[in-house]
Every structure is written in C-alpha cells, then in structure tokens.
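ARCHIVE CARD
CATEGORY: sequence design from structure
SOURCE FIELD: tokenized fold
FIELD CONTENT:
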C-alpha cells in the first residue's frame, strides 16, 4: 500500500497540480523553478551529494560542517537568511565540484504524510565547455512551517529521471526514537551521515567513531552500528 501511495504521489509531483493552500487531501504544490529538466543528463556521481530538510539553526550548522571548507560559505550564506521560526529549508548540494555542474530544486509537493521534492541535476557533457573556476552547486528552497505535516512524514527526493535519491521518515515536532543499544543500520540510496545522525539523535562524530570511519563517505548496503 505504501509503495502504491508513493508512486501516486510521485506522479502528482512530476505532472504537477495547482497550488491549493493547505488542503492536505489534495496537497500543496510549491513551484520553485520553471526550468525544464527533461534535457538534463546526469552522467557521473558527484562526490558528497546531499539532499536534506533542515528545520532549525542547529541542524543548519551541522549540515554546513559536513561540507568542505570551500563549499561551506555558499551554504552558510543561504541558510543565514532562513527564519526557522516560520520556515524550514530544503537544500540540495553537490558538494565541492569543479566545472559546469548544476543543481536546481524544481517543485515541492506537501501532503499529510509526505514531502516530495523534485531536483534537477546535471554534469558537463563531452562537448560542453567546462568552467576553469571551482564551483559549488547548491540550491535552497524555504517552505512554510505551518504547512508542513504535523506527524511523522516521509521525505522523498526525486531526480529528473523520477528516481528516488533520498527516502527517509522524519517528524518536525518530536525527537526521533532512540535506537536500541547496538542497533545495526543498512545504508540505503541517498542516505548520508548527517541524515543518519539526525534520524537517531546522535552526532556524525559518534557514528564515525563507532564504525571507525575515516571520512564522511558511506556506501549503499554498508552496515553501520548505532549506539545511544
């Protein structure tokens, strides 16, 4: 049933419906860009790619600390303008990359149990001119806090091909339940150390220490030990 719901909501997100306020039965669509992603091609994996929903200043600081010192200023400047008393922020970051990479949040659909985000990502093609300067592709969209789901909801981020690059459950008004001692977590598509730390109410440094990690990079299928 959940898979069917997710597919239906994905179709709504991709096809689009008129914005209708906070009527959760029909959903609230926030259009953030008119860019046509259909011609964009994602040909390579960008290192340190992150897609996140940030709800307070502490999370904002934690997010920027996961970025390289070169990519950090752009994210800090963007997040500094968010009023977390009335807003939350959806962010898309490709980390530290050089060349003509692009990332753009195209549309957000808020329902009673889901927040669906469509993101366009593009890397340079073989014949595209490559910029010589270092660029840090980053995009941010703010959402009204009053229109967010009131209970547990699923945050799903899709790329321009309709593929889910992030799928996680969260709650804006309650701390995630602490995991049992010695819990093991298998890394899924789109998950990052930042997202796991936020989910389990621990720090990135905790997870790295428990699992003897030397970098923030984790892989799909990797099993991590989580203690609380």
């Amino acid at each position: 049933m959940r898979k069917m719901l997710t597919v239906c909501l994905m179709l709504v997100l991709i096809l689009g419906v008129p914005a209708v306020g906070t009527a959760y039965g029909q959903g609230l669509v926030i259009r953030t860009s008119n860019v046509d992603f259909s011609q964009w091609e994602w040909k390579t994996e960008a290192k340190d790619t992150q897609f996140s929903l940030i709800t307070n200043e502490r999370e904002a600081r934690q997010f920027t600390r996961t970025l390289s010192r070169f990519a950090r200023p752009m994210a800090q400047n963007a997040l500094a303008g968010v009023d977390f008393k009335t807003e939350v922020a959806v962010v898309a970051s490709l980390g530290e990359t050089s060349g003509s990479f692009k990332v753009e949040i195209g549309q957000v659909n808020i329902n009673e149990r889901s927040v669906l985000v469509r993101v366009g990502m593009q890397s340079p093609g073989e014949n595209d001119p490559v910029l010589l300067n270092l660029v840090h592709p980053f995009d941010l969209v703010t959402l009204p806090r009053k229109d967010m789901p009131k209970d547990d909801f699923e945050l799903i981020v899709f790329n321009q091909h309709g593929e889910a690059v992030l799928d996680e459950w969260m709650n804006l008004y309650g701390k995630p339940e602490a995991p049992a001692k010695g819990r093991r977590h298998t890394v899924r598509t789109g998950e990052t150390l930042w997202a796991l730390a936020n989910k389990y109410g621990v720090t990135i440094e905790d997870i790295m220490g428990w699992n003897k990690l030397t970098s923030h990079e984790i892989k799909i299928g990797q099993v991590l030990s989580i203690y609380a």
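CARD ANNOTATION: The chain has two domains: 2-174, 177-228. Residues 1-26 have pLDDT under 50 and may be disordered.
SHELF: design records, drawer C
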